[in-house]
Amino acid sequence: MTESFQTDTREDRADLLATCARQKDEDCLTEPLAMELLAKRASDLALATLAAIFLAPLLLVIAGAIKLDSPGPVIFSQRRVGRNGELFDIFKFRTMAQGTPNLPTDEMLKLPSPVTKIGKFLRATSLDELPQIFNVLKNDMSIVGPRPALYNQVGLTKMRLQARVLRFLPG
Fold first, then answer.
1. In terms of Cα–Cα distance, which of 37, 73, 44, 39 is closest to 132?
2. I need a labelling partner for 169 at 20 to 30 A (CA). Which of 38, 59, 84, 145 fits?
3. Rounded CA gap, 60 and 19, in Å?
4. Cα angle 156-161-167, degrees, rounded to a multiple of 5
């Protein structure tokens, strides 16, 4: 059975958020789990802070390369589904030309590639993901966790809700 991950209706999203809220109330954390989550948050903060400090020169070089390669902002943000189904903005280095239409991947493949020269390299090396350390510092994400779904992937989010994956921060 394949699940549809296309854009769903606002009503579907509202139903999903209501279910998330009910499940959040039902999920009373036990003391050991709460302590483990606290320790995980402390390690996330420590690692993300160290990464931000030590990777700052690399982040600046990448930002400069993006600015030289194409006009537009250096950072790209996108709505994603986080813990308990709450939406947050995920940060990435911009890898596509400014003004690229917001289309599903299968439709984008029909168009000429909007990926910039530096964007191709950043994607191949996953360096475009480095700004997510700031999502970790904001407590939107964790260093290790499930990949955050797009805001409009209601089918996927429903499956994750049923599997109780949304109880945890994405990573």
1. 44
2. 59
3. 42
4. 125
Estimate the share of the chain in helix, then strand, then coil, as percent rounded to the nearest 5.
55, 10, 35
**Least confident among 60-64, 132-136, 161-165:** 161-165
* DSSP letter for each residue of 51-117: HHHHHHHHHHHHHHHHHHHSSS-SEEEEEEE-GGG-EEEEEEE--B-TT-----HHHHTTSPP-B-H
* Cα–Cα distance for residue pair 16/131, rounded to 1 Å: 29
Q: How far apart are CA 110 and CA 130, in angstroms?
A: 29
Assign 6 a pLDDT band (cuts: 50, 70, 90).
very low
| Residue found by looking up tokens 């945890």 in the block | 168
Instruction: Encode pLDDT of 34-56 as tens digits.
Output: 788 889 999 999 999 999 999 99
**Backbone phi, then psi, for 101, in 5-degree steps?**
-65, 150
In b/e form, how buried is each residue of 115-143, taking b as 16+ CB within 10 angstroms?
bbebbebbbeeebbebbbbbbbeeebbbb
What tens digit of pLDDT does each residue of 125-160 get?
Answer: 999 999 999 999 999 999 999 899 888 888 888 888
